[in-house]
Amino acid sequence: MPFLVVTIVAAIVDLVVLAVFHIARPEVDPLTRPTSEYALGAYGWAAAVATGIVGLGALALAWAVRTQTRPAAVVLAIFGAAKVAQAFFPIDPAGVVTTTGQVHNVLGNIAFFTLPLAAVLAVRALSPRWRWAPPAAAGLVVAVVAVLAADLHGAFGVAQRVYLVGCSLWMLAVAAVGIADLPDRTRDVS
């Protein structure tokens, strides 16, 4: 259960930090610019911390689901490790190319594709307890396609934000379902 609580806290922190950045950093256009740009400039440390926390939440979730769905747990662990590492490699400012920025991009691409894959791999294990598991996984896959399409039409930022919110909500829901399924030990008085 503690691992599921870590996941829930991580998802909530991610959602709150993303919302706050829309207010605190209005110069980062949410329609066209990636959320990674919040790590540049004022409050950049908060973006790095939130990214690391998301990674830790995913690692905790991977550990929590490892006995129910090993393939999904492995892919979740890859996602989590990529996000934790990404926290230490900020994106490059526009027009600049550095090794640090390139590492950020590679880790971001790994994370981008692995969480939806983990959701798809977890459907069978989650479906008996969470009837929304199949549509939630499908939604993340559609969000990936939407981000790729939006990038071609200048709306990458908004599509990425929808995708990231969906990822955090998926992790939050899976962890909440896991907690709800725990036996109530207070009833066992024998």
Distance between the termini: 22 Å
Regions with pLDDT < 50 over 5+ consecutive residues? 184-190
Overall geometric form:
globular
Order of helices and strands: HHHHHH
Q: Note the total helix count.
A: 6
Whole-angstrom Rg: 17 Å
Count of DSSP strands: 0
Tally of distinct domains = 1
Query: Helix amount, in percent?
Result: over 70%
Q: Structural class, please?
A: mainly alpha
Mean pLDDT: 91
- Largest beta-sheet details: none
DSSP strand content: under 5%
Descriptive key words:
single chain; 190 residues; mainly alpha; disordered C terminus
Give the topology:
Blueprint: H1 2-24, H2 44-65, H3 70-86, H4 99-126, H5 133-152, H6 156-180
Please characterize this protein's 3D structure.
The chain has 190 residues and is mainly α. It has one domain (2-180). The chain is built from 6 helices and no strands. 39% of the residues are buried. The model is unreliable at 184-190 (pLDDT under 50). InterPro entries: DUF998. Keywords: Membrane, Transmembrane, Transmembrane helix. Pfam families: DUF998. The chain crosses the membrane at residues 42-65, 72-91, 103-123, 135-156, 162-182. It comes from Pseudonocardia sulfidoxydans NBRC 16205.
